[in-house]
Amino acid sequence: MKLKDPGLLREAAFVAGAWRPVRNDGATVSNPANGERVGEQPMLALAEVEQAIESAHAAFGAWREHTGKERAAVLRRWADLVMANADDLAWIMTAEQGKPLAEARGEIAYAASFLEWFGEEAKRGYGHTIPEPRRGQRIKVIKEPLGVCAAITPWNFPSAMVTRKVAPAIAAGCTVLLKPAPQTPFSALALCVLAERAGLPQGVLSVLTGEARMIGEAFCESHLIRKISFTGSTAVGKSLMANAAGTLKKLSLELGGNAPFIVFDDADVEAAVAGAKASKFRNAGQTCVCVNRFFVQRGIHDAFVARLKAAVADLRVGDGYAEGTTIGPLVNHAAVEKVERLVMQAIDAGATADLVVRAPAGGSFYAPTVLTGVQPSMQISREEIFGPVAAITRFDTEDEVIRLANATRYGLAAYVYTQNMRRGHRIERELEYGIIGVNEGLISTEVAPFGGVKESGFGKEGSFYGLDEYLDSKYICHGGVA
Ligand code: ADP
């Protein structure tokens, strides 16, 4: 590992303010580009998870008493440390996740932006005063931190998904138990090293590695934990919701998507192709807001497909550390097999595949593919692809495409390309999605609320809405005020 600061790669969990190294319980993390060992993470025992929960509970009393300004100062220092160590953090991310180094650097800046933004918001947990209905009363509503919160994060954005949850919780005055994805624990642990250096008090953050189901159940069953924020598959989100019912926890669930990308005849085709490329192929197609279904109107279909193929031909698949790589490996071989299955099923059902780029042998690579003649009934239109495959369906009318776009149980992101703004305004209301890009393919930012509807989950991340997810309002009524 070429790290300037080797101390950032910690083969240890962070439990109750102390580093807990691997003993004889290490689980290996490997690089998806070549299978090489990155390091080992401890598989914590239930008793250690419970100890972390208790320490988060014990730390809450003092952390909530810090002023917003004091919490902001810690988050600011943390953000600065993340940026100062961006090269090392990106290197660790590429090793365990596979994404190209330039993309990993971009994610580190995005991760730091949540620390900065929510640090600033820490000072603004405003409440209300309400005019009293009876004489002699005074009514106020204050915002208070929820208490101990748990965060469960996925492997596709190993750093940004961590700070998107942990920063608002800490800014609000909550304490946090983080369970990172088993494929990418070292990015989360490196962030934790920097949190400690930034002066985050003991017990405010624990990072727990180990068996997902056991840790998830411990979170759900604990009476001390008030909220779980989860990003991952819809199936796991549903099981967490069922298990959290026993203690009536608050939940934020950011689950799967099936994003439509609609291109009307009147679209600016170059802008549509640029947006399509950015949204579809970022992170090798492994984001929950990646386009899953392209709907292209008949009149522009062939021009759009030709230009998209030309744009895809510029992509370079390979090791994330290699100069010029724009598409890294998929997270593992099972992911490759899943994408292969969806593409083969589509071809069997009549779709046409164009492979315009080669993928190297070995590693879990998948060659970017443009698939035309895709029908809404095909499995590839119904399931999240999570790979670099553009599945394109032709349509004729606006009504038809709205119906097709909404014909899914998911509702996270949707994209529309049209130069007719009346149509743009009309369709943004019709689409049953939590995030809409109109003539825009990159919609993620710390300043706006990210979150879905339907089976894509609920709860918002980022922006002032994101802070509110970690605050409760308390109504106080004073009587007998002369
Ligand atoms: P993906 O298919 O993208 O890996 P998962 O939903 O399986 O999505 O994983 C997202 C996160 O949820 C990871 O941190 C994973 O370890 C965790 N996870 C998986 N199964 C469970 C479970 N039963 N309870 C709690 N967390 C889980």
From TrEMBL:
InterPro entries in UniProt: Ald_DH/histidinol_DH, Ald_DH_C, Ald_DH_CS_CYS, Ald_DH_CS_GLU, Ald_DH_N, Aldehyde_DH_dom, Aldehyde_DH_Superfamily, Succ_semiAld_DH
Active site annotation, chain numbering: E254
Residue span, Aldehyde dehydrogenase domain: 27-475
Family under the similarity heading: Belongs to the aldehyde dehydrogenase family.
SUPFAM superfamilies hit by this protein: ALDH-like
Keyword terms, alphabetized: Oxidoreductase
Classification via NCBIfam families: SSADH
Keyword Oxidoreductase listed: yes
Phylogenetic classification of the source organism: Bacteria, Pseudomonadati, Pseudomonadota, Betaproteobacteria, Burkholderiales
PROSITE patterns: ALDEHYDE_DEHYDR_CYS, ALDEHYDE_DEHYDR_GLU
The protein's name: Succinate-semialdehyde dehydrogenase/glutarate-semialdehyde dehydrogenase
A Pfam cross-reference name: Aldedh
